[in-house]
Amino acid sequence: MTRPSGLPGPDLYWVETGALTESDVVAFAACLDDEERARAERLRLPGARRDFKVAHGLARLALSRARPDRSPSAWRFQTGPHGRPEPEDAPGLRMNLSHTRGLAVVAVSEAGAVGVDAEATDAPHARPETAALFCNDAELTQWRELAPDARDAAFYALWTLKESLLKACGAGFTLDPRTILCDLLPLRVVAFPPRPTGRWRSWATTLPGGFRLALSLDETGPSSEPRACRIIAPDDMNAPEDEEATGLSPAVTLDEIPHGPPPDFRPA
Ligand SMILES: CC(C)(COP(=O)(O)OP(=O)(O)OC[C@H]1O[C@@H](n2cnc3c(N)ncnc32)[C@H](O)[C@@H]1OP(=O)(O)O)[C@@H](O)C(=O)NCCC(=O)NCCS
What we know:
This protein is α+β, with helices and mostly antiparallel strands. It has a single domain, classed as CATH 3.90.470.20. Helices cover 28% and strands 25% of the residues. The strands form 4 sheets. Strands 4-5-1-11 form a 4-stranded mixed sheet, covered by helices on one side. A 4-stranded antiparallel sheet has the order 6-10-9-12. Helix 1 packs across helix 3 (46-66) and helix 2 runs antiparallel to helix 3. The chain binds coenzyme A (COA). Residues 52, 82-85, 96-99, 115, 117, 163, 166-167, 170, 172-174 line the site of coenzyme A (COA).
């Protein structure tokens, strides 16, 4: 996964699935295996079926960009104890994906385990009872003190950030998101007590079309920077490794979310 910039780092690819043609969806799905096809067919909502197919096809295409000697349909996956799939027979290569209504996102990394979460922000989730599922008492206090029109954005930012960390460590919601300690404004991960030894880094952005996205990495090597590429059609994934290439141009900037106590923190 050598980039023109020479910087290692997770590569993030995102597709607005609602803008795809039917033939693009078919092309993304062409490399799925029988199990993935069967899982897709079990989804009742056509939009969810489309998002699932695109996300899993995109994952295979992204892995083959990182390891061009393997075709997209040749990838097999091993599932961790809490359900996280990782590519088989590809030492050092990690992958995570997320799909939400109208969006598919994949992160591929040779810099450590990655977790990615994306959410459509038009759903009215930012209610106190939902916030209480993600926020511990200190975060809830901060959230309630925000101006009402700032609460939705802060809620989605916190939700995706915490879920990306839970996915990067592989636990998912078997770990309570409230055990991750954050500040809301400015957004910061103060501590991740269940996984204190990780070299955690996180990034986040808002995508056009009304999506919030976060990426977390348990960094293993030299300091790395993620790259986010908007994919408009499946063929973009075959573009040469050239940051000027159409479709693979870095399309959004990922803002790094700091980890650790705030600079003015004074131990009691
Ligand atoms: C991982 C989890 C947080 C994803 O939630 P979500 O918001 O519904 O879904 P997203 O679209 O963001 O991500 C889904 C993808 O994450 C990946 N994933 C699944 N389990 C994962 C885990 N434990 N850690 C990281 N990624 C995981 C899969 O690729 C999954 O895609 P698929 O459902 O299409 O196969 C949630 O499913 C979870 O907590 N799972 C673990 C606990 C569990 O239920 N385990 C049962 C199997 S042992």
